[in-house]
Design brief:
The complex is a heterodimer of chains A (about 15) and B (about 240).
Chain A (H helix, E strand, L loop, with lengths): L6 E2 L1 E4 L1
Chain B lengths: L1 E4 L16 E4 L1 H6 L5 E5 L5 E4 L4 E3 L9 E3 L6 H12 L2 H9 L2 E3 L7 E5 L23 E2 L9 E9 L8 E9 L10 E9 L7 E8 L7 E11 L1 E9 L4
Antiparallel strand pairs in B: 1-2, 1-5, 2-3, 3-4, 6-7, 8-10, 10-15, 11-14, 12-13, 12-15
Helix pairs in contact in B: 2-3
Classes of the chains: A mainly beta (about 15), B mainly beta (about 240).
Chain lengths: ~15, ~240
Amino acid sequence: SEASCIGFLRVGFA
Amino acid sequence: ALVRLRGAASAHNAQGRLEGHTAETVAGALDRTPSERVGVRVVSTDATMVVEPHAFDMLGARVPPGEMRLLHRCASERFVRRVFLPLVHHVELIDHILSFLKLPQVTMSEVTAVKASSSAANDRQCSAANTLSADDGTWWLSAPDSCPNGVGAEWVLYRLRPAVGARARFQYVQMKIPKLPYGPLSVRVFHVEVADDESGPFVRVGPDLTTFNTDRMQEWALPTPVECACVRLVLTKNAAAC
């Protein structure tokens, strides 16, 4: 279904 | 001053859980409130609020990328020098000993995305490596049906330094997602796991962290600085499921 994945644009560590 | 909000701060904000989010103390708000409460500005949202003392932890000054620091649980450098100098007499030798007790703060240009639990595609728009790109037109999304009803445990694994097994130090995680209605598949709840080997074992550090519905870069602090070679972000719930 349309809501069956997950994600994000960008990550950073500091 | 920089603070790390704790679970107790969440009641102040209906949008989501503030636990782990970083905030800066606000001098004006501090003046207007009883001395035991502190006015803060949440870095992720710019929202200002007043928090009780049990709802935040003080954080040290940010460490510049690449700066060498003694291990988190190690005694201070001054103490190590004072203990070793009468024993070995050579400052150079103490410096050598100290070099084994130091790690560099993470430098983002050295970080690489090693792999992901799955990927919706592996092209210009969608790949784990895109999460290290400043381009907002690229992203990483797990495979279709990897997260039924928006709940799962999908992850992206990062290596902090070019050399295999080399460790770095970090305390902050920053993340950017698209704002609704564009980002129903954006992560809403995630946590951080660390390891010294890409194959694990992975150890969880810190509580569940919650994103806000904003397309700004958001920021959380882990309870203490972490020293490791690999970091895994484990995504457990998307915005649609929330």
